Amino acid sequence: VACTVEGSERIRGILSGGTGDVLLMRHLKAGAEIAPESRVLTSGLGGVFPAGIPVGTFISEGNGRDAAGRHAGGLEREGKVRPAVDFTLLEDVFIRR
């Protein structure tokens, strides 16, 4: 899902499944400052989901690639996101356009 991280600078990335109760946000710009506990919202890019739906909270950078979570080239990084909902408790999901 195309998402943005709220803050002084809107940072975009792609949110995808992760492990356990943590999602991964990929393709974050390497130099961007992201404050812990920043809200993650759908961006509306791609037209699948409307902009502004809360999907989680940014909790940390990195995924084991290096200390800052950078990819080999250092141009982008990944971060961990705590979902806005507990997926084990969901029975039905409705997306309104």
Structural summary, described in words:
With 97 residues, this protein is mostly beta strands. Helix content is 0%, strand content 42%. A 6-stranded antiparallel barrel has the order 1-2-3-6-5-4. The two termini are 15 Å apart. About 5% of the residues have low confidence.
How large, in whole angstroms, is the Cα Rg? Answer: 13 Å
Q: Could you tell me the number of beta strands?
A: 6
- Mean pLDDT across every amino acid position: 81
Written as H for each helix and E for each strand, in order along the chain, the element string is EEEEEE
Secondary-structure class: mainly beta
Strand order of the largest sheet: 1-2-3-6-5-4
Which blocks of ≥5 consecutive residues have pLDDT under 50?
66-70
Main sheet overview: 6 strands, antiparallel, barrel
Strand content: 35-45%
Termini separation comes to 15 Å
- What helical percentage do the residues reach? under 10%
Given the C-alpha coordinates, what overall shape results? Answer: globular
SS field, number of helical segments: 0
